[in-house]
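Components:
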Amino acid sequence: MVKLSAKCLLAGDPAVGKSALAQMFRNDGAHFQKNYTLTTGIELLVKAISVPETSDSVEFFIFDSAGKDLFSEMLEKLWEQPNVLCLVYDVTNEQSFNNCAKWLEKLRAQAVGMHIPGVLVGNKTDLVGRRVVEQKQAQEWADKHGLEYCEMSVKEMKNFEAPFNILAKSFYQLYKEKVEIFHSLA
Amino acid sequence: MRSAERRLSAAGAALLVATSSDPEHPAGNVADGRSDTFWTTTGMFPQEFIIGFPERVTISRVAIQCYLVRTLRIERSVSKDPVDFEECIEKDLQHTEGQLQMEEFPLPAFQATHLRFIIKSAFDHFVSVHRVIAEGTAEDT
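Structure:
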């Protein structure tokens, strides 16, 4: 039984649902925060999930980051040495999707030369009539930038575990590959 | 070198604690005198392990064989318990693609009951430590 630990940077524009996702995930879907609270700086949440088809697990240290630019200088320090990325946008807000490029660039700058598994997450799929970013468009952008893609509705408690399952699997895969390399060194 | 290592292991040098554990690659592997077995870290840095001696020893040489380690700090303690550590050295290692990092630490002889190795940062998500060599002699008591 291996327990990996991963620093997960959670980023994206303000009010796309980063904190709602993090809290929902931690509380196993027990509670949807209806009131919006602006995150200033960082909130840290810790939760372990098991890796499917193994007896191993990944403990996530989720750094839920402020979406407002105002706090970005502070973030850079707290973002050091990341292991995985979770980039969230709002499917009803085109700007939040367009800004993902900027967020991704900032996140990747934290670990130049290292492969950092990441997932792009489209939230608020419950607002069907207001949707402006299509799945195909987002999926293509994610592919192009080496990210996995998934959609969810935190409000409807739909699929909120998917991003973390994807990240756990990728991180676990990285570990296995690395151990193979360690074996080959002696 | 071998005899010195044997002296230490005969003196009961043992791994006391480590921050990561994969049962297939336990931290005890750093002190088994072999390069083909290793300890893997399993996540975020810093990561550390502590080696303890049953009594105070004088150490004249410290070396490590590892992979992907960037910043390494070595501390020692002369207490009976693994407390009150003080820094011996902190060093940035070079990345050696595809082969083990073999690092010698230029330290004057010093006394210790415990040695603590802190991996502060790395060139990748995970590192391996294959062997720690601490040559020295037990004090005459």
